[in-house]
Each structure stands twice: as structure tokens, then as C-alpha cells.
Amino acid sequence: MGFGHIKFLSAASLLFVISMLSSSAEAKECGKCVFQSKAAFFSSPSALSSGACGYGSLALGFSGGNLAAAVPSVYKNGAGCGACFLIKCKNSKLCSKEGTRIVVTDLNKSNETDFVLSSDAFKAMATKGMGDSLLKHGIVDVDYRRVPCDYKNKNLAIRVEESSNKPNYLAIKFLYQGGQTEIVAVDVATVGAANWNFMSRNYGAVWDTSRVPKGALQFRFVVTQGFDGLQLWANKAVLPADWKTGVIYDTGVKVTEIAQDGCYPC
């Protein structure tokens, strides 16, 4: 596994991180905050996998298909894509005390609920044998909190999007981001070069640039950590010089950090 931490950021990345991470020092750690809201469900998980994060059918393999669309405050203009939550419904007659883990894959524009879950995730909140009964309620009261994502043996991966057009345009999306963080800045460079080019968030988990370096490519990215940003990078060529669209490339980096996002009041 090759990754490193550095103590400097490009000017563009630094300004972006500051704007994203301007939390008060008195803010509570979000992972310890429990929120109350309501949750509904979609009958088809494909409605969530094809959502605003851009994961497509790959999302169906996240967390056993327990997917969710989240309100803008959780979606965070796409920075919340891939975030994991523990969600529990509050109907003591139908719901388990353990709840279930969900992954954010879409934007929920409803004012009635913080989450719209896949039907599998909705049923997973129920006690054994009561999933269908819970579905009949349609909307339920829930408690939820942010938890780390655990993809076990999977490293952070990059998928080259079909919209990419070598050599003038590159679009990628990040998969299998572990820990409890958000990617807030991305840079790309030719392997061994010092001239890093920043990428922009196109939408959801998709980042792009029209300034594509030549040759094999390396990446560095900023994730939230503590109340600051931590920059990580792969000490290898992540994309070969002959990179192809639709292919998933392993970065060799495993993200395990836990961010203390400012979320006062809980």
C-alpha cells in the first residue's frame, strides 16, 4: 500500500478546503451526534443507484444494496456521496434496536424525510419477519448518525467515466472510500512531475479536468480529518498512459480517517 501525508496544499486546494472545513473549534464530533427525522423508501433500488452521485449500477454492491437518497445538508453538493450512516426506526413493535447501515448514493429533495431508502434497507430496520409489515407504513420516524464505511480489503478506487476524451478531457469517480471522511479536493499530475493540476467536482462523486497531463497519471486528494484537511496520494501510477474509459483502477490507498465535522447543534 503506497500513500503519504504532506504538509502543503496547492493554493486552489487550500482555499477550497478552508471554505469546506471552517468548523468552530467548539463543534461536536459528528459521529457522536444522533439526529431525529423520518425515512421513506423506493420500491426499486435502481432508482437510487442511478441517482445524483453518479455511481450507477456499481452502487448496488455497496453495503449489501442498503442505499439511500439524503437531504442537501447530508448530500453536501456531492461531498456526502458514499457516506455511511447507521439508521434505526423508532417503532418498537416492528423495528430492531440494532438498525441498519446505509450508503448515500443520491439526493433527496423531499421536505418530509431526511432519507429515502432502498426497500431492502427499509426492511432491514425491522425485526426478523416484520420487514413487509414495516413497508406498509411508508414513512417512519428514525434516529441516525454518521458511521465509518468499511470496505474490508478494498482500497480507494478510481473509475474513468465514459465521458472522458483523451487527451483533452478526463472525468473520474471515486469508489470504496473508507473511514468517515469526505473528499474535498483532487489534483492530478504525470508520474514524477511536480506540476499538479486541480480537478473540479462535476457532480456527485465525479471529478473532471480539461487540463489532462500526458503519460501515466498519479493523484493526490484532500479528505476531511479532525477539524482540518489531510492530503493523501498514491506513490505509483494510478492511471496508465493508455488509460481507458469504463475501467476501474486501484489507487493503492486505503482511507481510514475519522473526521470530526462541525455539526453543532446535534
Structure description:
This protein is mainly β. It folds into two domains: 35-146, Barwin-like endoglucanases (Beta Barrel); 156-253, Expansin, cellulose-binding-like domain (Immunoglobulin-like, Sandwich). The chain is built from five helices and 15 strands. It has helices spanning 11-20, 46-49, 72-75, 119-124, 131-135, and strands at residues 3-6, 35-42, 67-70, 84-89, 100-107, 115-118, 140-147, 157-160, 170-175, 183-190, 197-203, 206-209, 217-225, 228-234, 248-250. The strands form two sheets. Strands 1-14-13-10-11-12-9-8-15 form a nine-stranded antiparallel β-sheet, with helices on one face. A six-stranded mixed beta barrel has the order 2-6-3-5-4-7. A hairpin with a 6-residue loop joins β10 and β11 (197-203). The longest helix has 10 residues, at 11-20. It is elongated and about 60 Å long. Residues 1-28 have low confidence and may be disordered.
Mean pLDDT: 84
Structural class: mainly beta
Q: Roughly how many Å apart are the termini?
A: 36 Å
CATH topology of the largest domain: Barwin-like endoglucanases
CATH class of the largest domain, named Mainly Beta
- Radius of gyration, taken over Cα atoms and rounded to an integer in Å: 19 Å
Q: Would you identify the regions where 5 or more consecutive residues have pLDDT less than 50? A: 1-28
Which oligomeric form is depicted? single chain
The name of the CATH superfamily of the largest domain reads RlpA-like domain
Number of helices: 5
Categorize the overall geometry. elongated
What percent of residues adopt helix (DSSP H or I)? 10-25%
SSE ordering: EHEHEHEEEHHEEEEEEEEE
Task: Specify the CATH architecture of the largest domain.
Answer: Beta Barrel
